[in-house]
Amino acid sequence: MAELSVVVVAHDPEQRTMLQVLVDGTNVARTVHSCANFPLAASDPVMRRIQSANADVVLVDIPADSPLPALRAIELLHQVIPGPALFAIGSLNQPQVMVSAMRGGARDFIERPTTTTTLLEAFVRLSTAQRKQQEEVRGKIFTVVNAKGGSGSTTVAVNLALTLQAAHGNTSLVDLAPLGHCALHLNVKPLFTVADAMRNLHRLDSSLLESFMTRHGGGLQLLAGPGMPQVTEPANTEYAKLLDVLIGHFRYVVVDASTRMDAITRLATTLSQTVLMVAHADVACLWSAARVQQYLSENGNPDKIQLVLNRFRKIPGFSEADAEAAAGAKLAAKIPNQYFAVSMAIDRGIPLVQQTHTEIARAFIGLAARLTENELDVKRKAWSLFKIS
Ligand SMILES: Nc1ncnc2c1ncn2[C@@H]1O[C@H](COP(=O)(O)OP(=O)(O)OP(=O)(O)O)[C@@H](O)[C@H]1O
Ligand SMILES: [Mg+2]
After folding, report:
1. Do the bridges between strand 140-146 and strand 171-175 make them parallel or antiparallel, or are there none, so unpaired?
2. What pLDDT is recorded for position 137?
3. Whose CA is nearest to atom 19 of ligand 1?
4. Does domain 138-380 have CATH number 3.40.50.300?
5. Domain definitions of the chain by residue range
6. Which ligand has the minimum distance to the alpha carbon of residue 158?
7. Which ligand is nearest to the CA of 285?
8. Which of 71-85, 128-142, 328-342 is least confident?
9. Could you tell me which residues are beta bridge partners of residue 30?
């Protein structure tokens, strides 16, 4: 299936037909619309037709003998329809035309006579750049929430965040629990908390945000939770703004919602790629899990809520499928029951995943890999796109 949709704008009928054939011949793009006339004004009907094609790319052919209308069209398209990438097609023997096209807003300049290979290279350049931009600028949120108080949300959030930081870097942990415990688990002493970021929301950018965060040894950045329960809480929209600044800065944002069951946890759920609902494999916890799953999926996609069975040990006659059916959520991970190791880790402030090669560290590495596996799919897809040529 074609990846990119393309509009071809070329005055010369032969050139127009040829460009369509070349675009479709790349196998990664297809022509969705073609125009013979260059738009002259924003109100030009051609402009509306190009806009409604909703394409990824607009190819503008610049005739060597009269380049001006095409150059003006590039400028106009760039100003009025900023969505699609503009590719100019022209002669490399006319450097002035090339410069004007790029200044006017063309993203790429493709040599005439054009070939399938040069077009394919330009399409691959575009999709690679767009993917990089998405990956770099918009991070992903993973929210961790308890099915029932004390099930291990903070243990899971802290160790997941550390594992993501070790594997990919640029990770933050945000403590939205009513009383923040993440700093204790990490043995750090925050000077600021989420409340400080909230108070400065009107001027919060990446650098101010980082100044409110506490850096853990391996590079993980913590936005700590309150040291005392709060009477007044910021509004939903303010939390949305905070999370937006966070994903503009970090590749991964792990939210510890612990036992918080309010609009903020629902908001975090809506904005999250995956919500990890932590439960023990006992009747009361799985009963709660089913209700929490229902509560959190009321305004969104229920599949994003997944189950983490903490303090897991095999129970004869009770399978993983039974746990999934009881909780109404797919199983994302099983964290072994190791009370001594976990309690010592919290008491000493040396998180579990820093004690490498343990069964529990392997469980978190598996969880982090599962949560980021789609990104590898994207990379594989890009690789196959390169191989087509
Ligand atoms: N995998 C585990 N094996 C054994 N004990 C565990 C495990 N995970 C957590 N615990 C125990 O459970 C306790 C609570 O863990 P944690 O603080 O992560 O829970 P929580 O769900 O965040 O609690 P809260 O509801 O107060 O926010 C820990 O002090 C630890 O002793
Ligand atoms: Mg907690």
Report:
1. unpaired
2. 59
3. 152
4. yes
5. 4-135, 138-380
6. 1
7. 1
8. 128-142
9. 5
